[in-house]
User: Fold these one by one.
Assistant:
Number 1:
Amino acid sequence: MRCQSWFHWMARLPPDPETGAATAEFAVVLPSVVAIAGLILALGRVTLVSADCRSAASAAARELVVSADESRARSVAAEVARAQVVVDVRRSERTTQVQVTCPVLPGPMNLTPVQVTGEATAVTQ
């Protein structure tokens, strides 16, 4: 009998105010986590393309010093960057400066740059 009265007493209480709280918190936090993860991936992509672009500029400068052929240097830069790149070559008496501009896929909400630039300078022999 005592057990029955306890159940009746519990039935009169309002439902637990914490019921469904985890689901609501998850629904609020999930979009933020997805947005942050997307931004981190986009920034990682920009970092990788930037490193490839600097490597392409270095390889193009090296090729210019060795062969002095600008068309070959442009093709080497495109090979290293694995993309369509714009190569700008400036020569002086003792140095050769190469600037390579590489495209980057646009990130979420266009927060990342559309292109990055890599530069290299080589001493002419």
Note: The helical segments are 2-12, 21-67, 70-81.
Number 2:
Amino acid sequence: MSPPEMLTFWIYCQTMTDSSPMSHVTTRSTVMSDHDMIDITLTINPTSASHSHINLFDTNDFRSNDFQRADFDKLNESLESVDWRDLRESCSFEEFPALFIETVHGICQANVPLKKPRTGKPFSYNWLRRKKAKA
């Protein structure tokens, strides 16, 4: 299966789920490129106000940490102070990944400031606004 066919198949599978935001997917060849054009019809309006007010900022997630403003010296000291061998031996092999992630996340929360949640309309919708303005 070629990469375009795999992408088309993946998108098709996504449309078959009940929670998929895509309702219809078509592909067609173009005369100006060797790539196929993929048209996707969405079941939601990405510019609607109801979607722009959803707060996706989760403080219990690594993505909420602002690593650009982090004090890496302090972070490295905290990571080096953990007895990783003792931590590994304190639980079963299956439980260790969750304990490892929990430990690293706790250290990051203690030493890395949180990002500030974005306000206003999402930046990712700017291309839709530009497209609408051109029309």
Note: Residues 1-43 form one domain.
